[in-house]
Fold this sequence. Notes:
0% of the residues lie in helices and 69% in strands. With 64 residues, the protein is mainly β. The radius of gyration is 11 Å and the shape is globular.
Amino acid sequence: MCESKAILLRNGEEETIMDDVALLERIDHKYVLYRIDGNKIELPEEYRLLRIDFLKHKIYFKTD
């Protein structure tokens, strides 16, 4: 499978937000992560997309 892991970078540490992310959307100034099974999580508005590593299947977020 090619799903990704959503990660929050905080104080130099990686904190997993969600595993098996299949879809990432931006809705009303917030990011929404969806798993292949339909579960979703809406991230707080202060979360910013930092980078996407396609080779490692990781989506990195940070807070201001």
